[in-house]
């Protein structure tokens, strides 16, 4: 029987049953052909019939062509429904985000912010396997060969061959049994060896896991002891433990993904004062979507943004709420009364619209005393008014990102800092800066920039000698607009400084949270280095710039790269 061809652009969505027929009563001819067809995507079903195959084929072709056309409309409608549904979902999400912004402070009032020390402990068990994963070797014995009686006929008896046939059968059987016995010996020996090897591997497997379990439990117990030790140290008011405790509290604070938290914590035990520099979200990092609609004509989802006024109000409200929420969480979690007061400095890193460069600014600062703060009913306050009542300092509009002087300055101590050494007094016009030691060059650069920043109250500290790369000095410029933390790297090179060194400096600036980076070298920079630094908060000072700065501050020296290369060919 011939078959029906399915011709469609969407055959992967079509199911067709077998061709069936209806015979005449006498069974001598076909009266009608049938075929069952289904469309899985649109959930359609038709049974077609025709007296002739070609008619049935034409019906099938017409049906599939119609279904192809309907599928286009169906998928367009479904796309619209999907897009519309997605728009509704995104709009609902936008509304939730705006509500989340409005409830930053009230959210924490229903949360116990104290640290559950037991939750910091790993309560898991070592995942001991239930069984050795390799099956025990098995073997099957082969039955002993049976003696087979020889076929002895009448002529064998008459001709006297019976005896020979029996002996021959017995001999064959004896040989088969002997071979079987030898085979059994070998089989059993091989199986015994396999079992022995398996048992050794199993024993090794369990020994390894018991060893790992013991190590796991020992490490777990040690970690539990560290948690207990930290808990006890916090209870005793040990400064490092108080800082770690505060960090745990801040890390546990759940903002539902509104922004990425960052903070720096310090503690002054003599005053029971916790100092906190808290990274506030930049205005453009907060949710700004008001609604989402689906455009049927283009199939696009189009966002409607909140107004500029609402954007600024949201940012200001979020900042004041974050400040009060953070103070509340830290005071509430301080069950050991280590904190009499908390300094909150709100820091924002955002693009300065005037320069297009990243700027780090303290835009709000408040020193809250425990007794005063704990008398406040945070569920009923206006966050901004409350902040001001605590004698907090901020600009009239936080959205302007105007820097303010902190109520209390954070300590600038860094364990990497080392005592400065005077190098400038040893210089004269014969000193080749390209030949002095790395350490002397780094101290000289620190000394030079200290004089540069001295007029505006800045300071420069040199770090552990890094020979090449890393942070060689940190400058603190108190200028509220152009100042901040500045990373200085000194490279006493005799050859061109490549772009890699400039990239490293930029990465260090980002990691240090600095506002600027300065790279000082006795040589010069390649074009790629200058190009990379051109749109970043980086300053590249070459040998000529260095000599000019030295002369401006009363130092004399020279730079002879050729002479230095001759003395140190590898530089």
Entry keywords:
alpha+beta, five-stranded mixed beta sheet, 13 helices, 42% helix
Descriptive account of the structure:
With 571 residues, the protein is of the alpha+beta class. The chain has 13 helices and 16 strands. It has helices at residues 53-102, 104-108, 154-158, 162-235, 239-252, 308-333, 370-374, 383-389, 438-454, 499-512, 527-533, 543-552, 561-567, and strands at 14-16, 20-23, 30-39, 44-50, 263-268, 273-280, 289-295, 300-305, 341-351, 358-369, 393-394, 459-462, 473-477, 484-491, 516-521, 538-541. The strands form 4 sheets. The protein has a 5-stranded mixed beta sheet. It has a 5-stranded mixed beta sheet with strand order 12-13-14-15-16, sandwiched between helices. A hairpin with a 4-residue loop joins strand 5 and strand 6 (273-280). Helix 4 packs across helix 5, helix 6 crosses helix 8 and helix 10 (499-512) runs parallel beside helix 11. The protein is extended, with a radius of gyration of 42 Å. 23% of the residues are buried. Mean pLDDT is 85; it is low at 465-469.
Draw up the topology in text.
Elements: E1 14-16, E2 20-23, E3 30-39, E4 44-50, H1 53-102, H2 104-108, H3 154-158, H4 162-235, H5 239-252, E5 263-268, E6 273-280, E7 289-295, E8 300-305, H6 308-333, E9 341-351, E10 358-369, H7 370-374, H8 383-389, E11 393-394, H9 438-454, E12 459-462, E13 473-477, E14 484-491, H10 499-512, E15 516-521, H11 527-533, E16 538-541, H12 543-552, H13 561-567
Parallel strand pairs: 6-9, 14-15, 15-16
Antiparallel strand pairs: 1-3, 2-3, 3-4, 5-6, 7-8, 9-10, 10-11, 12-13, 13-14
Helix pairs in contact: 4-5, 6-8, 10-11
């Amino acid at each position: 029987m011939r078959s029906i061809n399915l011709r469609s652009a969407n055959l992967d969505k079509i199911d067709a049953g077998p061709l069936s027929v209806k015979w005449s009563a006498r069974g001598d001819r076909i009266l009608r052909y049938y075929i069952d067809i289904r469309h899985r995507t649109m959930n359609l079903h038709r049974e077609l019939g025709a007296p002739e195959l070609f008619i049935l084929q034409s019906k099938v072709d017409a049906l599939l062509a119609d279904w192809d056309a309907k599928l286009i409309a169906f998928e367009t409608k479904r796309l619209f429904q999907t897009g519309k549904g997605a728009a509704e979902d995104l709009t609902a999400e936008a509304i939730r985000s705006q509500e989340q912004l409005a409830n930053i402070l009230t959210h924490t009032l229903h949360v116990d912010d104290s640290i559950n020390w037991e939750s910091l402990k790993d309560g898991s068990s070592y995942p001991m396997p239930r069984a050795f994963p390799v099956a025990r070797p098995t073997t099957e014995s082969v039955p002993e060969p049976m003696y087979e009686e020889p076929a002895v006929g009448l002529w064998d008896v008459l001709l006297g061959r019976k005896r020979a046939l029996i002996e021959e059968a017995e001999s064959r059987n004896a040989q088969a049994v002997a071979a079987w016995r030898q085979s059994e010996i070998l089989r059993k020996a091989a199986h015994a060896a396999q079992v022995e090897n398996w048992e050794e591997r199993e024993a090794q497997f369990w020994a390894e896991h018991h060893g790992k379990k013991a190590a796991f439990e020992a490490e777990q117990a040690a970690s539990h002891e560290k948690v207990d030790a930290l808990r006890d140290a916090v209870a005793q008011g040990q400064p490092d433990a108080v800082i770690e405790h505060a960090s745990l509290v801040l890390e546990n604070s759940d903002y539902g993904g509104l922004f990425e938290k960052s903070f720096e914590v310090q503690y002054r035990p003599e005053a029971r004062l916790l100092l906190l520099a808290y990274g506030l979200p930049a205005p453009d990092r907060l949710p700004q979507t008001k609604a989402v609609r689906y455009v049927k004509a283009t199939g696009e989802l189009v966002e409607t943004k909140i107004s500029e006024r609402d954007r600024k109000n949201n940012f200001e409200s979020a900042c004041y709420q974050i400040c009060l929420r953070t103070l509340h969480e830290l005071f509430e979690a301080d069950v050991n009364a280590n904190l009499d007061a908390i300094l909150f400095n709100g820091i924002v890193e955002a693009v300065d619209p005037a320069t297009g460069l990243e700027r780090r600014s303290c835009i709000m600062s408040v020193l809250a005393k425990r007794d005063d703060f704990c008398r406040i009913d945070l569920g009923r306050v206006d966050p901004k008014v409350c902040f001001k009542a605590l004698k907090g300092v901020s600009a009239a509009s936080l959205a302007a990102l105007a820097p303010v002087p902190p109520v209390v300055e954070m300590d600038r101590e860094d364990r990497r800092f080392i005592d400065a050494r005077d190098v400038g007094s040893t210089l004269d016009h014969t000193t080749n800066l390209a030949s002095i030691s790395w350490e002397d060059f780094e101290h000289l650069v620190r000394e030079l920039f200290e004089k540069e920043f001295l007029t505006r109250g800045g300071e420069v500290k040199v770090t552990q000698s890094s020979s090449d790369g890393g942070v060689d000095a940190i400058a603190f410029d108190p200028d509220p607009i152009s100042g901040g933390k500045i990373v200085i790297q000194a490279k006493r090179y005799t050859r061109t400084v490549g772009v890699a060194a400039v990239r490293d400096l930029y990465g260090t600036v980002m990691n240090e949270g600095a506002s600027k980076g300065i790279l000082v070298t006795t040589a010069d920079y390649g074009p790629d280095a200058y190009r990379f630094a051109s749109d970043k908060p980086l300053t590249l000072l070459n040998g000529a710039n260095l000599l000019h700065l030295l002369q401006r501050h009363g130092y004399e020296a020279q730079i002879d790269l050729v002479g230095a290369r001759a003395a140190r060919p590898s530089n």
